[in-house]
Write a structure and sequence with these properties.
The chain is of the alpha/beta class and about 325 residues long. It contains 11 helices and 10 strands. The protein has a single domain, classed as Alpha-Beta Barrel (TIM Barrel). It has an 8-stranded parallel sheet, with helices on one face. A two-stranded antiparallel sheet has the order 1-2.
């Protein structure tokens, strides 16, 4: 496993990180989740990602319990705030009230004294950004959070947030968590250059396009046999990538990857990591053996000419 700095911050994270969306606290049993998390740790993964809304807090509990026996200084723990944690009006959003209350709730569920990286999960048009990032800064000053990040933000929103933080002298934003994979390179145009100027690293999600870039599906009809698709949200997420165009390209990419001694998943992960601004690519895994394959993507480096061959297949 190789490690990279998280933006301009000094902390280093594994190139491959383990997430818990739709898996832990969901269709994956607690013992399988524990074994998978520990396998990732043993394989050099030091970066674990979750969120309060994943299974309404259950994913945080599973991740926290699995990591509880490990030295706290040996891993980096990330979670998020924004989504609904109840039906009442103040049980969601990025208000000071919700952020403070959910940080405490996440710490309790995780069984942790502090959160290494705390994200604003997605924008909240009903709350002034000044209120949000002042609250995040206060959490850092209180020692409950070490680093601040955001996720699912447009370039315009990022510019506004960074401007507020810099003008008011708040704790800098060090991480952005965007969608990024071979089929979704949108952040390259505006988000990556903007974040680079402000020392914000990328922790990318869905690098395998919900399994399509892992060769899991040979046709659109295969979604019926997907365990992840058994969850209502998982089915929607998988179907968004299950298009004949993507499946066909994945087959071609898989054949090309084998020429380099790589699986399709390893190729897809290495593609996201080819950009030095990407600090880590988040994978999902329900079994320990999935970890073994994916972590081998760390350290894979191809030349610009070789990557250009793959870009041609992608139509770029």
């Amino acid at each position: 496993m190789e490690y990279r700095r998280l933006g301009a911050a000094g902390v280093k994270v594994s190139e491959i990180s383990l997430g818990s969306w739709l898996t832990y606290g969901g269709y994956v049993g607690k013992e399988s989740a524990r074994q998978t998390i520990l396998k990732a740790y043993e394989s050099g993964v030091n970066f674990f990602d979750t969120a309060n809304v994943y299974m309404r807090g259950e994913a945080e509990r599973v991740v926290g319990e699995a990591l509880s026996g490990l030295p706290r200084s040996t891993y980096v723990l990330a979670t998020k705030v924004r989504g609904p944690m109840g039906e009442l009006p103040n049980q969601q959003g990025l208000s000071r009230k919700h952020i403070m209350e959910q940080c405490d709730a996440s710490l309790k569920r995780l069984g942790a004294d502090y959160i290494d990286l705390y994200y604003c999960h997605y924008p909240d048009a009903d709350t002034p950004m000044e209120e949000t990032y002042r609250a995040m800064d206060d959490l850092v000053r209180q020692g409950k959070v070490l680093y601040v990040g955001f996720s699912n933000m447009s370039a315009a929103d990022i510019a506004q947030a960074v401007g507020i933080v810099e003008r008011q002298g708040l704790h800098p934003i060090v991480a952005n968590q965007p969608l990024y994979n071979m089929f979704a390179p949108d952040i390259e145009a505006e988000v990556l250059p903007l974040c680079d100027r402000h020392g914000i690293g990328q922790v990318v999600y869905s690098p395998l396009a919900q399994g399509v870039l892992a060769g899991r599906f040979k046709s659109v009809a295969d979604v019926a046999g997907s365990t992840r698709a058994a969850d209502a949200n998982g089915s929607e997420a998988v179907r968004s990538w299950l298009k004949e165009e993507y499946v066909a390209k994945a087959r071609t990419l898989q054949e090309m990857a084998s020429d380099f001694g790589l699986s399709l998943a390893q190729l897809a992960l290495a593609w996201t990591l080819r950009h030095p601004q990407v600090a880590s690519a988040i994978i999902g895994a329900s079994r320990p053996e999935q970890i073994e394959e994916n972590v081998r993507a760390s350290g894979v480096r191809l030349s610009a000419e070789q990557w250009a061959e793959f870009e041609a297949v992608l139509g770029r």
